[in-house]
Amino acid sequence: MEYLKAFIVGGAICVIGQIILDRTKFTPAHILVSFLTLGVILGGVGVYEPIAKFGGAGATIPITGFGYALSQGAIKGAKANGIIGAFTGGLQAAAGGIAAAIIFGYIMAVIFNPKTKN
């Protein structure tokens, strides 16, 4: 049942992104930043947490989940260390995902020899 919930929530997020892409003049970069910001805002006000609990990986893996992780880290950091913690907490909470993206991106670049588009 967890897989079905993850599929529904993750699929819904992707469908929303695809509809925005098809019906507006937004570029994928605009949508990416919008979804990240939306994840931060919804996480900050407490709306994204029930979605993440219901959808599991379907809600935490997309870019909105990264925004949610940033907001939760910033909130915890601010409670523990004040205003400085608000800035450092988000990075601490998301450090594993950032590191994995860099490491796996490097490995894929070495294996597959990327080329520029012409």
UniProtKB/TrEMBL annotation:
Keyword Transit peptide annotated: no
Pfam families the UniProt entry points to: SpoVAC_SpoVAEB
InterPro entries xref list: Spore_V_AE, SpoVA
Transmembrane segments: 6-22, 29-48, 54-71, 83-112
Entry keyword Cell division: no
Keywords recorded for this protein, A-Z: Membrane, Transmembrane, Transmembrane helix
The protein's name in its UniProt record: SpoVA protein
Species this chain originates from: Tissierella creatinophila DSM 6911
